[in-house]
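Lab channel / #folding
Pinned by the channel admin:
"Please post every new chain as: sequence first, then the structure tokens as a reply. Keep commentary short and put observations after the output so the thread stays searchable."

First post following the new format, from NK:
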Amino acid sequence: MRQREQWTSKIGFVLAAAGSAIGLGAIWKFPYMAGTNGGSVFVLLFIICTLAIGLPILLAEFVIGRRGQHDAVTSLKKLAPGKPWFFIGWMGLLSSFILLSFYSVVGGWILSYLARALFFRLDVADYGGLFNAIIANPGEVLIAQAVFMIMTIWIVQSGIRGGIERASRWMMPLLFIFFIVLAIRSLTLEGAMEGVRFLFVPDWSYLTGKTFLLALGQAFFSLSVGVTAMMTYASYLPKEEKLGQSAFNVSILNIFISLLAGIVIFPAVFALGQSPAEGPGLIFVVLPAIFNEIPFGGFFLILFFILLLFATLTSSISMLEIVVSTGIQKKLERRKTAAWVFGLLIFIVGIPSALSFGVLSDVKLPGGTFFDFADILTSRIGLPVGALLISIFAGFVLSTAETDDELRMKPFLNRAWKFIVRFIAPLAIIIIFIASFID
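Reply from TO:
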């Protein structure tokens, strides 16, 4: 039995953790949520909620993970022996398994668009029709999903240092560079400043309870809290690293990328007379049409889908790592086999989701298709319930001495964090949970 792996550096951990958080939530969901909820006010509330509530829960996962120094299930057994809190770890594993099963389907869609952009010019008249044709083609979606899962497995099988950290070290900087290049191009379009105003000049008529709840939900889910991904990553962290600083850096990077996504998309949307309230089809339907109308649009579209692929991959590897880490326990020699076995199982479970918009579109479950049902199980049940239990565990089960030993922040910051994870965060999560089903 070999010694448990560790990150080689703080920057490697931060980039990997940020990569886990910066996925479709930041680049796909944030722009359309902002676009359909007034833009600037939603953005402001999102930033406040991320730093005031999302960050403390992220820090709670870091504290539990490093304190336990094992996979989530084993860590919780170690920290609360003889009590059923380890169930949080199993729930996180199940949520990650289901989440990746349909997340990989969207990753496959991105690969399909990227392949078309690379080898053919995406200049069709009806991008909505193209998107519907892609997701309804059973052969294409399954092949694309399989390729995406193979890419994810290939990274995770190589371990923390040789796989996840190495991939994050080159994918995340490239993601930032590509985003900045795209943002500059978007801002140089005639009429782009309308999009900037939409994103940053508040329209206070949108300051409502509903907007606040949506922004709070986006803050939780975009930080990847609730599925024990951050707990698992923190378990590979050396004792000398400062958890508060790392959690803050991850939160700031997530906000930065979300804002960059808005700067890439909304100036272009307004410059070319499109609607910012286009919804989930914004990046698959509206953006290709926009890029098709600007000089060198084909190049920038390829750049965007490469960027989106990187962001999706960095999140998917964290989900698979949760499953693999639990499966191998401390027996690192089993990592490669476990990565391929669990990856194959996740692909198989994801097949109904992949076919939900084609041959299985008439099969209905609670909430809609297989894809919709998997989304509800994770996004609306698994993540908030997981985040709630993690917050309660860190706030009430771990002693103040244990949390202070991990946090090592100034006493007043330790006390403020403890108060938030004990009272404020659970209340916020419960409100979001109830509101999501009422809505």
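NK: The domain at 10-438 is CATH 1.10.4160 (Hydantoin permease).
TO: also worth noting, The chain has one domain: 10-438.
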